[in-house]
From TrEMBL:
Keywords: Cell membrane, Membrane, Transmembrane, Transmembrane helix. GO terms for cellular component: plasma membrane. Residues 722-831 form the ABC3 transporter permease C-terminal domain. This is Drug:proton antiporter. The keyword Transmembrane applies. The chain crosses the membrane at residues 264-288, 309-342, 362-381, 402-422, 428-450, 471-496, 720-740, 761-791, 803-827. InterPro entries: ABC3_permease_C (IPR003838), Membrane_comp_ABC_pdt (IPR038766). It is found in: Cell membrane. It comes from the Bacteria. The keyword Transmembrane applies. It is a multi-pass membrane protein.
């Protein structure tokens, strides 16, 4: 360090300390904007940390064991059981499937769990009445069943009633109040029923070919290396279709959902920080504008540009640190204060506390945002000469030196890169940053366009003095247009995007799907039941269409002889078992996009047709060989065609369809989709339940209702995040109004001296605020529509239409917010005495 550098730093520190003694005047908005943005991100991270800690702590209890191996449509064979028993101190076998619970005329879909005597290995169930599970499942004259209270209520059942499940009779012995491994099964379409596995022996519920999952929970010796055992299991069972889970991630579906939702909320929080950054920049600009005389004096006395930069940089850095620390304190304390409420609302355990990682992440974002938005106005004053400052108070408008521009670019890249790295959703984060940057550029251009339009229209507003004055204020020097448009516009853009996405998702569920989707899925139809099943359904005049297909489940284990994941990565098709069907001749509703379908009656080496979209994503081509494990048997088939599969209709669709000879000999059942008029659904369900008790009918409307409930929770969370962004924008508006209060007081004094009434001056202020608010709202609407379209089209892959009520609310909201902020700070300038204001200005 040269001799001048420590001296410059020493002088700057002394000057900064002296100026800070004057208090925080002019910087309250800066501190509030940073604090609010950092607090939102810190609170989101803290809640995520609490959930992850709870899942880790209760991982074994939520899973029901230290580890779990699961299979589809079959139980473990002797060799697989022996491997588990050799490594575990206890093993519990569970089978899960969907069926219909029937009491009298009432039929309700239920998720059945058939358990053995060892269940549960970890944790305790709570039953009402409080009896041992073994006693409840033993029953009396009939095997016992335990049902969730919601299922009991929907059936109108009471303890002791005879209930049928899939045609098998059970005695309802108790209500299932709590289940330690309730979240281990993931998404469920029906309330829970527990029965003993022994009660299902000889029944069609677990017959070969029926749809069920078998799960083997393992209690392991203390100190077992779960990672090493997982690697051993994957090597041993790589081609058998067995899937591994353990206590390190007892509820992977929930954890993945939490991570995705929190990543999205952090992005909303970063948008709020960007809005706050606009306020920070405006506050710094206004503060430096008020220090023009001091800066000019210091430069006249020989202070270098470095000293000036360090003086105000140290001040703003110290105040930014205060804002960040306040935000961290608020973000850490808020989840602790509402922990009892959140714990009751969350479906998973949460361990609330202080999470340094989440706080450090929020602090990093806050520091980078503060540096990014303060460096520009700071850097512009370094190279300005004293004479310029004395002659022209608006002279600090030159671009910063290239070195500062390079630092600004590096700060922006650091902010985007750290968010992409820490969020766990790098692609989504980078696209979100690109969207925020595009919105800021669009808003900045809109602010410039609004000033130009105001200048042109000002000449045409003769005879309307209030309008002319407002247009002149918008077009003139020192205007508030840029900070207002940027802050309010970005906040409204986020809100508009959230509203448009939510509206389109609800429209897709509530309007599109019911017109195209089937009324029911019917599963576990045995092959010999197909003729009678079709006679009842296709013979009903209220049924417009019945589609059916054989149904198996398989795991793609290899592609061209190599492990599938090594070839195609972690694609969702490879993460578990997928539906597999077979067909002879080309079905009527199938469109082949490339290749050829096998001829009817083909009995040669197995061939497979793959969904075209998923095949392209996996990098598959005609002639490739897929190895699919079905019921523990590997089948290698050549890809001879690709075909269109539209999953958006909620109808029947299979990733893989093989030739009939390849699969017809395997135990399997059939699946059917039934399209019926709504009035015919109840009689149809009743007749199918009576004639085919083993068949499970799944209502598409009930499944849609569950998805709608999930959307409600997501929309609520994102709306709160967007609201925080908008509140930050409102703070920036207040800051802009405060910084322009002196100019409005001078303007009002001049107009009063020329004979203008207070009412007309107030109308001018109101028109100015309304025009800027409406401009911000219109641009935000455009940005929100474009952003929502991009997310719906590229991420959610749904259709998109503008939700005009939401759009109108955004424009009116922008107008109202800026009008409110403008009028709040209009009274003091109007009340000031003109002579006093004009003398002070001189």
């Amino acid at each position: 360090m040269s001799q001048s550098q420590p001296r410059a730093l020493g002088l700057a520190t002394r000057f900064a300390a002296r100026e800070l003694r004057a208090g925080l005047s002019g910087f309250r908005i800066l501190i509030a904007c940073l604090a609010l943005g950092v607090a939102a991100i810190a609170a989101i991270g803290s809640v995520r940390g609490a959930i992850e800690a709870g899942l880790a702590r209760e991982g074994a209890a939520m899973l029901g064991g230290d580890a779990e191996l699961s299979l589809t449509y079959r139980f473990a064979d002797a060799a697989e059981r022996a491997w588990m028993q050799d490594r575990a101190t206890a093993v519990s076998e569970i089978a899960e499937f969907r069926s219909m619970a029937v009491l009298g005329e009432d039929r309700v879909l239920t998720q059945v769990k058939a358990v053995d005597a060892a269940y549960p290995l970890i944790g305790e169930l709570a039953l009402s009445p409080d009896i041992p599970l073994s006693q409840a499942l033993a029953g009396d004259d009939l095997p016992g069943a335990v049902m969730a209270p919601a299922l009991i209520a929907r059936l109108g059942a009471e303890t002791g009633d005879r209930v049928e499940i899939g045609g098998t009779a059970f005695r309802l012995m108790a209500a299932l109040e709590s289940e330690p491994d309730a979240n281990a099964s993931g998404f469920s379409l029906g309330p829970r029923t527990l029965v003993a596995s022994s009660a299902l022996a000889g029944t069609p519920l677990l017959a070969p070919g029926t749809l069920f999952d078998s799960r083997y929970r393992l209690s392991l010796p203390p100190g077992t290396d779960l990672a090493a055992l997982e690697a051993e299991a994957e090597a041993r069972f790589s081609d058998s279709g067995i899937r591994w889970r353990d206590a390190r991630n007892g509820a992977p579906g929930i954890q993945a959902f939490v991570e995705r939702l929190s990543a999205f909320l952090v992005l909303v929080g970063l948008a709020g920080l960007a809005v706050g950054g606009v306020g920070v920049s405006a506050a710094v600009r206004a503060y430096l504008a008020g220090k023009i005389g001091i800066i000019a004096t210091l430069k006249t006395l020989g202070a270098s540009g470095r000293v000036i930069l360090l003086t105000y940089g140290l001040q703003i850095g110290a105040l930014s640190l205060i804002g960040i620390l306040l935000g961290l304190a608020l973000g850490a304390l808020l989840p602790l204060l509402v922990a009892p409420i959140l714990s009751a609302l969350l479906p998973v355990p949460a361990e609330f506390g202080l999470y340094p990682g989440a706080l450090a992440e929020a602090a990093l974002y806050g520091a980078l945002t503060a540096a990014l938005f303060t460096l520009w106005p700071l850097a512009r004053v370094e190279e300005i000469r004293a004479a310029q400052l004395f002659r022209d108070p608006g002279a600090g408008q030159a671009l910063p030196r290239p070195a500062f521009l390079a630092v600004l670019v590096l700060l922006a890249l650091a902010l985007a890169g750290s968010a992409a790295l820490l969020s766990g959703a790098a692609s989504l984060t980078l696209w979100a940053f690109a969207g925020i940057l595009a919105a800021l550029l669009l808003l900045a251009l809109a602010a410039r366009a609004l000033r130009a339009a105001a200048a042109r229209l000002g000449a045409l507003s003769r005879g309307r003095p209030a309008l002319r004055w407002s247009l002149a204020a918008i077009a003139g020097p020192g205007t508030e247009v840029l900070p207002v448009i940027l802050s309010l516009g970005l906040g409204l853009s986020v809100l508009a995007s959230v509203g448009q996405i939510d509206g389109n998702m609800r429209a897709a569920i509530a309007e599109e799907l019911p017109t195209r989707a089937p009324s029911f899925f019917a599963v576990d139809i045995q092959p010999d039941q197909i003729p009678a099943f079709l006679e009842r359904t296709e013979g009903d005049a209220a049924v417009s269409r019945v589609d059916r297909a054989p149904m198996l489940r398989g795991v793609i284990t290899r592609i061209n002889g190599a492990p599938a994941r090594e070839v195609a990565g972690d694609h969702w098709v490879l993460r578990g078992d997928r539906g597999v069907s077979y067909a002879g001749a080309l079905p009527d509703n199938t469109t082949v996009t490339s290749g050829t379908w096998w001829p009817e009656g083909y009995s040669g080496p197995p061939q497979v047709s793959v969904s075209a979209e998923e095949g392209a994503e996996l990098g598959l081509k005609l002639g490739d060989k897929l190895t699919v494990n079905i019921l523990g048997r590997d089948i290698e088939a050549e890809i001879t065609s690709f075909r269109e599969v539209d999953f958006s209709t909620a109808g029947m669709g299979f990733i893989l369809v093989m030739n009939e000879a390849a699969l017809a000999g395997a135990p399997h059942s059939w699946i059917a989709t039934i399209y019926a008029e709504r009035a015919a659904e109840a009689p149809l369900l009743r007749d199918l339940g009576r004639d085919f008790p083993n068949v499970t009918a799944i209502s598409v409307r009930e499944a849609i209702a569950l998805v709608t409930d999930l959307l409600d929770s997501i929309a609520a969370a994102t709306s709160w995040g967007a609201a925080i962004t908008l509140v930050t924008g409102f703070l920036v508006l207040i800051g802009a109004a405060l910084s322009g209060e002196r100019a409005r007081a001078y303007e009002a004094a001049v107009l009063k001296s020329l004979g203008a009434s207070r009412a007309r001056i107030l109308a001018s202020f109101a028109l100015r605020a309304a025009l800027m608010g409406a401009g911000a709202g219109l641009v935000a609407l455009l940005a929100g529509i474009l952003g929502a379209w991009a997310i719906c089209h590229f991420v959610l892959e749904t259709s998109y239409a503008v939700i005009w009520p939401n759009a109108l609310a955004v424009v009116l909201g922008g107008l109202a917010l800026n009008l409110a902020a403008g009028l709040i700070f209009a009274w003091r300038p109007l009340s000031a005495r003109p002579a006093q204001v004009l003398r002070a200005q001189d």
